[in-house]
Amino acid sequence: MIQTVFVTGSSGLIGSETAKHFAQAGLRVVGIDNDMRAQFFGPEASTRGTRDELIKNLREYEHHEIDIRDVNAINTLFGKHRGKIHAVVHTAAQPSHDWAAREPQTDFTVNANGTLNLLEAARENCPESPFVFTSTNKVYGDTPNRLPLRELETRWEIEPGHEYEQGIPETMSIDATKHSLFGASKVAADVLVQEYGRYFGMPTACFRGGCLTGPAHAGAELHGFLAYLMKCCVIGRPYRVFGYKGKQVRDNIHSFDLVETFAAFIDKPRVGEVYNMGGSRFCNCSMLEAISLCEEISDVRKFQSHYPHWKFRYGLREILEQIFRAMS
Q1: Predicted local distance difference test score (pLDDT) of residue 322
Q2: Residue 36: CB atoms within 10 Å
Q3: Which member of 171, 214, 317, 321 has the greatest number of CB atoms within 10 A?
Q4: Within 10 A of 30 (CB to CB), how many other CB atoms are there?
Q5: pLDDT in tens, 252-276
Q6: Cα(50)–Cα(56) distance, integer angstroms
Q7: Cβ atoms < 10 Å from Cβ of 261
Q8: Do 87 and 128 touch, CB atoms closer than 8 A?
Q9: Please, what sign has the CA dihedral across residues 240, 298, 132, 205?
Q10: pLDDT < 50: residue spans in the chain
Q11: b/e for 281-318, b at 16 or more Cβ within 10 A?
């Protein structure tokens, strides 16, 4: 019997990389994606092309145009595969601060209620299967802005010797801070995933990502920093910098490297874990250096201590070259 991996947001950057990884490993992939990215950011951000490639190129891939807010459809699909579900990787989301402020109810129901629907379906049908959630470092809100930052020529940088010099740890508080409505909906989902792990004993993990990127990213101005920047360069479109003199720093992690962390967790799952997962000091840049702030850099040492065989593969130059080739 072929084991199945459920992947939500399967046509997006991280979802498609996840689908490819597990299909190539010999597992069946059930993809869930209704291309809401096109609704969020317009036709140029549509993921239908990626969906078509997955259907065409992955023999063990089964696609479903399901909205994760549709609890009946989700329950029916999970029930159909009951007894065969090896893992659930949840990457579907509304990912924009600005869009969330325009339509808070859509943002919250996608990010929070959608996650709850998936957790309940997993608890009912595969409670022992690892549940991976793509969270965000935005759950820390503006607390990192209180760190002692120095303005350098091309970036903001934390004071040398500070305890967070290597990045933000998972122990930073997510309370008493301004998150944005997007951050709040992701906090709700993040805490739900933790609670289903701790309360019900399910093997769940929240991967709090920094800037997730790669050649399959359908970059838009409000989401997908590196991909959108490269798109502007390729087609000659002006790129707008929003504040901080362009010196705000982002750590960038390639979708391949992130999915490798998912696979490591699924291979040796733990209960109710939280991991900060970005490019760390290995792969980061400011807006100026790539052509918001240093607090976005993630400390990945906790995950590396739990899974010491995982290593970064893609650096910033390689990521940008891949994105350029994908657009040329």
Answers
A1: 79
A2: 20
A3: 214
A4: 24
A5: 788 899 999 999 999 999 999 999 9
A6: 10
A7: 22
A8: no
A9: negative
A10: 292-296
A11: ebbbbbbbebebbbbbbbbbebbbebbeebebebebee
Single pTM value for the model: 0.86
Residue with the two structure tokens 């991976």: 132
Q: What is the dihedral of CA 238, 242, 248, 250, to 10 degrees?
A: -70
What percent of the residues of the chain are helix, what percent strand, and what percent coil, each to the nearest 5?
A: 45, 20, 35
Under DSSP, is residue 266 helix (H, G, I), strand (E, B) or coil?
helix
pLDDT number for residue 232: 61
Q: Is 209 helix (H, G, I), strand (E, B) or coil?
A: strand
Q: How far apart are CA 328 and CA 323, in angstroms?
A: 9
Q: Which residues pair with 28 in a beta bridge?
A: 4
Strand 156-158 to 149-151 pairing? antiparallel
Angle at Cα 210 formed by Cα 39 and Cα 236, nearest 5°?
60
Phi, psi of 28 (to 5 degrees): -85, 140
Determine how β-strand 211-213 pairs with β-strand 149-151. unpaired
